[in-house]
Every structure is written in C-alpha cells, then in structure tokens.
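Question (not urgent): is this output format expected?
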Amino acid sequence: MSAGVHDIEAIEGWRAREVEEELPGLGVAFLHVDLPRSPSPLSASPQPLRERLQTLSNRFNGAKAIALRREPVPSAYRVFFRHIGLDPDAFPTPIEAAVRQRLIDGGFLTRSLLADTLLVSLVDTGVPVWALDAQALDGPLGVRLSREGEPLGGGRQSPPLPGDRLVVADSRLALATLFDEPAAECSVKGRSRRVVLYALQVPGVSWVCVEEALWICRSTLGARG
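Got this back:
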C-alpha cells in the first residue's frame, strides 16, 4: 500500500467475508501512534487547538449546515447510512451531527485534547475518526457482524449485542458498533500513551481522504507513528 500524502501509511483493516459480499467499499483504516508523555490525551486542549476550533466554528452557519449534505464526502456517508437501513435525517452522520451540535451550542465547544483533535479532523475532512487504547487490543482491526449475545468491549458489565450488527473488532472482541463510540474497556484513558486511530471508509470516499483525516489527528496530537 502506498504512503499517504503526508508520509504516513495507514493500515487497511480486514473485512469478514459477509461484509465484503454485502457491503463492498466499506472498510476501516487504522494507524498506531505513540503519544508524547505530556499532556494527557484527556487534558484540556492547548490554546492553538482551541483557536482552531473557533475558526472552524466561524465557517458554519445554518445555510452552510444545510448545504453540507450535498458535498461529496458527507453525501457519501449519507448514502451509506441509507444503504444499511439508517435514515440520516433521524440518525445523522458524524459530520452532520457535529455541525448540528455546533448550531445548538453556538460554536464547537472544547472538551479535551483528544476529543477536540477528532472533531477538528472530522470538520476539516468529513471523515470520522475514533481512538482506542492500543494496550486493550489484540491484533489488527476489521469489520464484521456481531455474534448474538457477545459483550461489547468484553467487560463484565458490557451490554450483550444482538446478532448481525456491524461492528469494528480486533481478533477477539467487538470494540464498537459501526459509527458509534468505542466501548469503555478499550477507550483511550488519561494514562494511555499508545493509541490506535481508526477511520471508516465508505463507497465514494477516497483512501487519500481517509489518510488525510488520520494525519490531521496524528499531527495535532503531536504523536509519532
């Protein structure tokens, strides 16, 4: 696989056979990164990142939010949502959910270094990225269907999943349902120093766009690949 435009090389995840057959073009790309010793990924964002959020906030008003769905990348996620049986008007895609929340709050609100980083990448590219604690994982990431009753994240109190739900998984566990936040057991903690960033690719979204989203996250976190 060729390196991306910023000299990083995202890894293409595996797909279960039934996913390849039923949903060609759906994929997961991921990247291992080492975080600096400080600040903590859950600490407050530095001033430059907060200013970047403010700049992005100023780009979006009601008209821009409505027009967003017609742009190529957001439109591709809307089409995919409909393909898997989700109404994007009732269950908005990640980028549309973020922009709707910006209109409610009057701006993109800062939460933490990691959360703000993921939000900046999403708003810049339209491609959603999530983060996992690398120590909680076993093997490469992929997309498969859930098994009836398996616990999301593998915790004792984890809710059992229904069968045939699309999930992001490693070699052992379902880590997150598609387009949802990861299970608490594998989410990034304040002490996490090695994380896995992953993005979901759908038909109509190029690999370059996916790598760009991952690169923005990596560089904003000051991480090393």
